[in-house]
Amino acid sequence: MGPAGPVPTAPATLRQNLVNGVAATNPDYTANLPGGLIEDIASTDTGALVTIDQARIDAVNSVTPYGANAFILAQQGT
User: Superkingdom of the source (predicted)?
Assistant: First the structure.
């Protein structure tokens, strides 16, 4: 979150967090083998995480007093 609102997370950071999360539960995991199925899945999943991150930003940026539903307005105290 920046001063002007939500900021997208860098794809490299998202990929590293994904690899770290998998490696934490799977000993001896490596995703740096070129041309392998694991690299292909990690790259595809990183693309999905970028899309999810952008959807998060779009959702936060779309909340305005004129465009929010009653539940969101109640949460904002208006």
Answer: Eukaryota
d(CA 70, CA 76): 10
Distance CA 77, CA 25 (A): 41
Q: Is 69 helix (H, G, I), strand (E, B) or coil?
A: coil
Domain ranges of the chain: 11-76
CA pseudo-torsion sign 22, 27, 32, 36: negative
Using CA atoms, how far residue 41 sits from 4, 7, 19, 76, in Å, is: 34, 25, 11, 39
